[in-house]
Design goal:
Layout lengths: L20 E4 L4 E4 L2 E2 H7 L2 H10 L5 H13 L5 H7 L8 H12 L10 H22 L13 H10 L6 H11 L6 H11 L4 H12 L7 H12 L5 H10 L17 H14 L7 H14 L9 H11 L7 H21 L30
Antiparallel strand pairs: 1-2, 2-3
The protein binds coenzyme A (COA).
The site of coenzyme A (COA) has 17 residues, from helix 15.
Length: 374
């Protein structure tokens, strides 16, 4: 293999055929199973869209009952796991906790578990892991899941004991994060699945990949940046300093979208609507950051991505920034599991190549430098 064969970061390489979602990076479109994301957030809620992504069509009434009941009955965690969580270091990052607890759940399951039923079970448990960790870490009593609440309401209830205003907006933000083609975490988890490994290993892989700041971890970094800027007047200098030092500006740019990310557009509109009624922290600074970054990078087509405005919204709900990426995972598990199962239907293990550029034909010497078999 030659250097010309290299596709750095697998840019432009197709690794699967999929009917789950379609991203048009030039027009800024995202489509789940044929439906535009704008229509789905307007008209559907988490359970319906999860059903759509897993099963390929929107649910009828019976199917809706089925998915709601599946997702609400499997929320509890084994008590042993909750006891173990109480022993975790109090400053453990929520993504590290989520990754570890999903892995632990794998010990409670038979190896042959890559079924849709198990995918749904795990999707039901992820909000519980996140909320329990929030309560344990803050020395608050755990709030157990409530079957009569829907997926996102139940999560907010387990976190805060009540439903914040705009909780519908939270549900819709989950829909926006549910699926996005062959992104890094979906690819990583599909690779794990392609070895016929179990679903807990698949999702542990995905969470570890999502955690990085170039992927889902960017939402936490965006809020850190906005806090650090602190004042709208300081935005141009702060951004120019990052550019001068060749640092990435978090929440901007995308491998596929070469125009405004449609998810960022929707999130920005919601934050704008909320801010018409009440103060939304950091929104003014964020708007200025967007103006400056888009202007400075006008030749490179760099625009806000999904992670730019999501954190401002979560912060407004009272969710601490280190939990932001877990919210992303809570939604994206639907896409991860859908892809893992779709790929299994025509499975082939992933095994790409690297191009060797190290030394060859070295003579083996012992520790004293004496050549052996020379
Ligand atoms: C998302 C991301 C990883 C995509 O990476 P990619 O497709 O490999 O794109 P590259 O990093 O090669 O960027 C292409 C060019 O745009 C620039 N660029 C892209 N995103 C940038 C950003 N956020 N800030 C500054 N420059 C950026 C790169 O420096 C590069 O410039 P060059 O051609 O002069 O070297 C990248 O845009 C990024 O790091 N963004 C910040 C992290 C983030 O928000 N991630 C969440 C993604 S949803």
């Amino acid at each position: 293999m030659k250097k010309e064969d290299l596709k750095h970061g697998l840019e432009g390489v197709a690794v699967a055929i999929s009917s789950i979602s379609y991203v048009d990076g030039e027009k800024g479109k995202l489509v789940y199973r044929g439906f535009e994301i704008e229509d789905l957030v307007e008209n559907s809620y988490f359970e319906e869209v999860a059903y759509l992504i897993w099963f390929g069509s929107l649910p009828n009434e019976n199917e809706e009952d089925f998915i709601k009941s599946m997702l609400s009955k499997k929320r509890n965690l084994p008590e042993n796991i909750v006891e173990m969580m109480r022993l975790f270091p109090e400053n453990a990052h929520p993504m590290a906790v989520l990754r570890s607890v999903v892995s632990m759940l794998g010990m409670y399951s038979k190896e042959d578990n890559s079924t849709l039923e198990n995918a749904i079970n795990l999707t039901a448990k992820i909000p519980t892991i996140i909320a329990y960790w929030y309560r344990i870490k803050n020395n608050l009593p755990i709030i157990y899941p409530e079957e009569h609440l829907n997926h996102s309401e139940n999560f907010l209830y387990m976190m805060f004991g009540e439903l914040p205003e705009y909780s519908k907006c939270f549900d819709k933000a989950l829909i926006l994060h549910m699926e996005q083609g062959m992104n890094a975490s979906t690819f990583a988890s599909t690779v794990t699945s392609s070895t016929l490994s179990d679903i807990y290993s698949v999702i542990t892989t995905a969470i570890g990949t999502l955690k990085g700041p170039l992927h889902g971890g960017a939402n936490e970094k965006v809020l850190e940046m906005l806090e650090e800027i602190g004042d709208i007047e300081k935005v141009p200098e702060y951004i120019d300093n990052l550019i001068r030092n060749k640092k990435k500006i978090m929440g901007f740019g995308h491998r596929i979208y070469k125009t405004y990310d449609p998810r960022a557009k929707i999130l920005k509109k919601w934050v704008q609507e909320i801010s018409a009624h009440e103060k939304v922290d950091f929104f003014d600074i964020a708007l200025k950051v967007e103006d400056v970054v888009v202007e400075r990078f006008k030749d490179k087509n760099i625009y806000p991505n999904v992670d730019f405005y999501s954190g401002i919204l979560y912060n407004h709900f009272g969710i601490p920034k280190e939990f932001f990426t877990t919210i992303f995972a809570m939604a994206r598990i639907v896409g991860w599991t859908a892809h893992a199962m779709e790929y299994r239907k025509n499975n082939r293990i992933f095994r790409p190549r690297s191009i060797y550029n190290g030394p060859k034909d070295l003579k083996y010497k012992d520790m004293k430098g004496v050549e052996i078999n020379g």
